[in-house]
Amino acid sequence: MLNFRNTNIFFLIVLAIFIPFQIKAGLSILWYLLILITYVSILFYGSYYVCSGFFIKVFCKGNTLEKQIAITFDDGPMESYTPQILDILKTFGVRATFFCIGERAKENIQLLKRMHQEGHDIGSHSFSHSFWYDLMPAKKMLADLKKCNN
Ligand SMILES: [Zn+2]
Q1: Low-confidence residues in the chain, pLDDT < 50
Q2: What is the whole-number distance in angstroms between the Cα of residue 74 and the centre of ligand 1?
Q3: Which of 10, 33, 49, 149 has its CA 20 to 30 A from that of 121?
Q4: Which domains does the chain have, with CATH numbers?
Q5: Strand partners, 123
Q6: Distance of CA 18 to CAs 12, 21, 25, 53, 114, Å?
Q7: Distant-in-sequence contacts of 51-60, Cβ < 8 A, 24+ apart
Q8: How far apart are CA 65 and CA 5, in angstroms?
Q9: 99 - beta bridge partners?
Q10: pTM of the predicted protein model
């Protein structure tokens, strides 16, 4: 199965096979460039096609024959947009999921309460919403998520 772990194992094996050839025959740097491009391309595929489940198990489709969609909003709550969104959802009797940034939720606690009272789901979108979030060590990520949940 094509996933992050198996891809890393495969490419480590490929490199382990190449190294003795490199020592004996002095292979061209182009071979390493080809391996690197292939590896990065696979990582790009896994990152771009989230439903592939390359990095983690994901659920992209429900087990139903009904035509349904899930509506989600990221990066709120914001005083400038969230009340309007909540009004529209209320008008049409639609519920959604709001993935909130902890810093913004802290400043807009009334909007968070309104989301909850009107039956919407609230998810964590980190506390800081740092640009470097994806590069944070796991411990720091977890601390940020816990801070958001609190
Ligand atoms: Zn975001």
Answers
A1: none
A2: 5
A3: 49
A4: 4-52 (no CATH), 72-149 (3.20.20.370)
A5: 99
A6: 10, 5, 10, 29, 60
A7: 52/2, 53/3, 54/2, 54/3, 54/4, 54/7, 55/3, 55/4
A8: 33
A9: 74, 123
A10: 0.66
Strands of the 121-124 sheet, one edge to the other: 72-76, 97-100, 121-124
> What's the gap in Å between 131 CA and the centre of ligand 1?
9
Ligand 1 centroid–CA 1 distance in Å is 30
pLDDT by residue (tens digit) across 7-38? 999 999 998 988 888 888 887 888 889 999 99
Residue 30 alpha carbon to ligand 1 centre in Å: 38
Is residue 14 within 8 A of residue 39, CB to CB? The reply is no
Q: How far apart are the first and last CA of the chain?
A: 37
